[in-house]
C-alpha cells in the first residue's frame, strides 16, 4: 500500500522533485518558525509521519534558507550546526529512500485512558526506553545516549516516547514544527525500533489527575513491567534529578518483581548536552560538529 505524501495538496512536496528546490515552507510551518505558533495536529491511536522526501526538503530549507523573520532560536549558529550534523549523518539514507511514499506510523499511548495491555494476547517486547519533548532537530547527545544503551544491552530494541506539544507549551516553550515531523526525525536515524507519542496528565486541567491518580499513576502504568505499554529494562536518564527519579522507580519495580531494571545517566558519562543549549545558541558549532562526529564513528547500519 502507498500512503499519500504529508502535503498531498502541495506539489512542492512531490517525492520525485529534485532536492534543494523547495521554494517555500507551508504557511503553518512559517508561522511556527517566525512567531512560535503551535501547529494544530489531531493525535489518533495511530499517526502517520513524514516521507523521507518531505523530511529532507524541510531540513534543507531550515539549513540553507536563513529567514530574518524566524525566531532567533532557529537562526542561531548552534541550531544551524545541529541541522547540518543531522544531515551529514543521515542524508544518504534519506536520499536513498526519498522515492518511498510510505509514511512511518507512530502509536499514541496514554495508559490512563486506554485498556490495559493485559487484555491483549501479546505483551510489548522488553526494551531500552527513553522519553522527552525532543523539541528540535535530534541532537547528538540523544543519539550517543541511545548508542551507549545499545552497547550495554545489544539484545534489546529501543523505544522512544515523544511528548505532545502540550508539555512544551506548559513549560513555556514554543513547539518546534509539529510532533509528527519531530517523531519522523527520530525514526529516520535508524537507531530506534519503536517511536510512540505520549501525553502525561497535568493537574491544572486534566480530569485524570484526580480521577486516576495523576502524573505518578500515569508513569507507574507506563513503566509497569510485563503488563505496561512500554515494558522497559534499561532506562536512559538525563542528569542527577532525572536519574534519581528513574532509579527510585526501578528500585520499586526490582523489589516487586525478580526482573532487573537498570538506569544509565548519560549526562555524567559523555553527553552533557540539552536541547535548550541549542535553542539559546549557547553551544558552539565546533562542539556540536565534534559530537556528531562521535555519532558517525559508531558502527551504524541506518537503513
Please summarize what this structure is.
By secondary structure, this protein is α/β, with parallel strands linked by helices. Helix content is about 40%, strand content about 10%. The radius of gyration is 19 Å and the shape is globular.
Q: Specify the biggest β-sheet.
A: 7 strands, mixed
- Would you tell me the structural class of the helices and strands? alpha/beta
Taken in chain order, the helices and strands follow as HEHHEEHEHHEHHEHEHH
The whole-angstrom Rg is 19 Å
Helix content: 25-40%
* Main sheet: strand order: 1-2-5-4-3-6-7
> Which residues form runs of ≥5 with pLDDT under 50?
1-21, 115-121
Beta strand %: 5-15%
- CATH homology superfamily name: HUPs
What does this structure look like?
The protein is α/β, with parallel strands linked by helices. The chain has a single domain, classed as 3-Layer(aba) Sandwich (Rossmann fold). It has helices at residues 27-35, 52-64, 77-96, 140-152, 165-170, 179-187, 207-211, 214-223, 240-256, 275-279, 285-297, and strands at residues 46-48, 105-109, 127-132, 158-163, 194-198, 232-237, 262-265. Strands 1-2-5-4-3-6-7 form a seven-stranded mixed beta sheet. Helix 9 links the parallel strand 6 (232-237) and strand 7 (262-265). Helix 2 (52-64) packs antiparallel against helix 3 and helix 3 (77-96) runs parallel beside helix 11 (285-297). The radius of gyration is 19 Å and the shape is globular. The protein starts with 26 loop residues before the first helix and ends in a 6-residue tail after the last helix.
Amino acid at each position: 500500500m502507498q500512503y499519500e505524501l504529508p502535503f498531498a495538496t502541495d506539489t512542492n512536496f512531490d517525492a520525485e522533485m529534485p532536492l534543494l528546490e523547495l521554494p517555500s515552507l507551508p504557511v503553518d510551518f512559517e508561522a511556527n518558525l517566525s512567531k512560535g505558533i503551535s501547529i494544530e495536529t489531531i493525535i489518533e491511536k495511530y499517526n502517520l509521519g513524514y516521507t523521507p522526501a518531505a523530511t529532507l526538503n524541510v531540513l534543507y530549507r531550515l539549513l540553507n534558507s536563513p529567514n530574518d523573520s524566524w525566531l532567533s532560536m532557529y537562526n542561531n549558529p548552534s541550531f544551524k550546526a545541529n541541522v547540518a550534523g543531522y544531515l551529514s549523518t543521515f542524508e544518504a539514507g534519506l536520499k536513498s529512500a526519498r522515492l518511498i511514499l510510505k509514511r512511518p506510523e507512530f502509536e499514541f499511548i496514554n495508559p490512563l485512558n486506554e485498556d490495559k495491555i493485559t487484555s491483549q494476547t501479546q505483551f510489548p517486547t522488553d526494551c531500552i526506553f527513553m522519553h522527552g519533548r525532543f523539541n528540535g532537530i535530534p541532537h547528538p547527545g540523544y543519539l550517543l545516549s541511545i548508542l551507549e544503551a545499545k552497547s550495554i544491552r545489544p539484545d534489546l530494541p529501543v523505544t522512544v516516547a515523544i511528548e505532545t506539544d502540550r508539555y512544551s507549551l506548559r513549560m513555556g516553550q514554543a513547539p518546534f514544527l509539529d510532533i509528527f515531523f519531530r517523531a519522523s526525525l527520530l525514526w529516520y536515524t535508524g537507531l530506534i525500533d519503536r517511536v510512540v507519542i505520549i501525553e502525561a496528565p497535568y493537574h491544572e486541567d486534566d480530569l485524570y489527575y484526580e480521577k486516576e491518580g495523576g502524573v505518578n499513576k500515569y508513569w507507574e502504568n507506563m513503566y509497569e513491567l510485563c503488563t505496561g505499554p512500554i515494558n522497559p529494562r534499561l532506562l536512559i536518564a538525563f542528569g542527577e534529578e532525572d536519574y534519581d527519579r528513574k532509579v527510585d522507580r526501578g528500585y520499586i519495580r526490582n523489589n516487586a518483581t525478580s526482573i532487573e531494571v537498570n538506569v544509565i545517566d548519560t549526562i555524567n558519562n559523555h553527553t552533557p548536552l540539552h536541547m535548550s543549549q541549542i535553542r539559546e545558541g549557547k553551544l558552539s558549532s565546533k562542539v556540536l560538529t565534534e559530537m556528531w562526529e562521535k555519532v558517525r564513528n559508531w558502527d551504524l547500519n541506518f537503513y
